[in-house]
Structures are given as structure tokens and as C-alpha cells.
Amino acid sequence: MQYAIDLAKSLGASVDVMYAYQSVSLLRKRAAALMEEYKQIMEDDAKEIVAEVAVRLKAEGIKVSAVVVEGPAAEAILRAVDESSPDIIVMGSRGVGGFTNMLLGGVAEHVVHYSKVPVLVGK
Q: What pTM did the predictor assign?
């Protein structure tokens, strides 16, 4: 995060903070109410996370916008790139995708591979 802050400050860039969450779909009608509650909790948590990041960036004097989207993270990031045409994507890699993605997280790997703009992946 600090590298993204330093980069944005040195370039005078604005930052779009994005958090994508994916809810689990259940086929049973009886689970629908629980699913809606679970989805709302996930959305609320995501909003809290982007708000905390936005506050930190604003405190550093960086112009920031924050958005929460539902869906697979990699697809959501690439969709956002198509919509907003950023100069660069700065993202982290947690590497939680198992052995096949141990060098670079699955989401980061997908974004690096398919992005139309440069991607900077930090640890």
C-alpha cells in the first residue's frame, strides 16, 4: 500500500480503490434468506475496507474514489479498466490460490495476463 501511495503522490495521480466480493450461490430456496444476509454482510465489510483505504489515501493528499463490486475479482478489475481507462493498475498478491498460483496470486496472475494497461503487483 505504501508503494502505491508514494507512486500516486510522486505522479500527482488519483486512485480508484476497488474491492470485489463474490457471494456463494445456493440452489435451495430455504437458504435464500440466509444467503441475502450473508451477501449483505460481505458487502458491508467490503465497503468498510474501501472506506478505510480511502481515508488513508485522502490523509496523504491523494484524490481517491472507492467502489465495491460483486463478482469474481479478476473479471471485476478488468471490467473497471475497460470503463475507466487507468494509466496503471497497482494491486497486491496474497497468493492464496494454492500450489499452481504460489508465485503470483490467481487474481493478480489473471489481471497481469489479460490487462490492456500495465500492472504493478506488490507483496
A: 0.75
